[in-house]
């Protein structure tokens, strides 16, 4: 008996010594900055290679679980609408708020671009610029909606890859069919819910590696993308960060306040997902964490959140599909001496609001940018000029994306009485340190 007591008391003490997850990520970020600086200034090739390998491995691990996670999450989210009163109205409201916030974001992007003229101040030459190998067009966008096969597989230069937009469509169709079939589909949905729980758990394991992945990703960025690479497009880079910051820290808090929600509580609850999105540069990879903070920290109904968050993770991109393409289009036009008119700016807004799904599941915003440039008739070679600094921009863009993906379901839930305000306003904030597999209850 005497030997068991110390063991019981020591366990909490040992747990108390563990750094919280957010502190681990910040420590990884600081370590990455230092190692990246050493690799760049000291020209330490092996260190730069190691950082690149660690960072790319972390991203690849996230990409591995994206396909089954998206497909099962969409199927379950559609099937769960059976449990939600006025599901059609909620779905419409969610999509409308996605569009409203995207429109606000693109207006901010255009305004900043017109004020700062990022292309005119860029010290970069257009000679030798090449169009990217992967481009986007409205025809490609429309045809890509229709799955070529049941797995959403498509061929690429490196072999077979998954088209996440097709996976979203497949998930919606399968979920809607299961919803229509009703009770006979329950065994199938039980398997899908079990698979979703398994892939969520795997994703949580990958997320736990974020401190290491952060060190690799940030270290690689510092080692590879020094000031000499950013300097020619410094104004454009600052514009993207400022535009995202305005949306993130001004527009979103105002929308929260307008719906009677505390902006401070929103950021306290959503910050774990926003922080991880900044590091991982993947909205879909952040999906389990986003859904967790929306339900556990912000008090949104799980039935509604299980629909809104997965849909948002694949289509709601205020950073990648609104602010960035607006600023990039203005920059490319100025670099190539093309004068944009009011019609062009309206087209940018239209593409940003309607074409967000083109970026579904993609790290970076190349497809969305080429879609915007081709719609405006601007040279696609301009994309190649901006690609060098894209990873630096993508961190802030993805953080903005995920914040919006958490805010819109919270707003819609508040408008429809689907939010637990005691949870939203509560002092306790759930963190990844308390991670447990999200329960996916069987429906009857």
From TrEMBL:
Domain of life per record: Bacteria
Transmembrane segments: 21-38, 58-78, 90-115, 160-181, 202-223, 229-255, 321-342, 348-371
GO biological process: dicarboxylic acid transport
Membrane topology listed for this record: Multi-pass membrane protein
Family matches, as InterPro entries: Na-dicarboxylate_symporter, Na:dicarbo_symporter_sf
Gene3D superfamilies linked: Sodium:dicarboxylate symporter (1.10.3860.10)
GO molecular function: symporter activity
Subcellular compartments: Cell membrane
Pfam families to which the protein is assigned, alphabetical: SDF (PF00375)
GO cellular component, one term: plasma membrane
Keywords for this protein: Cell membrane, Membrane, Transmembrane, Transmembrane helix, Transport
Coiled coil: none
Record protein name field: Na+/H+-dicarboxylate symporter
Native species: Microlunatus sagamiharensis
Organism lineage string: Bacteria, Bacillati, Actinomycetota, Actinomycetes, Propionibacteriales
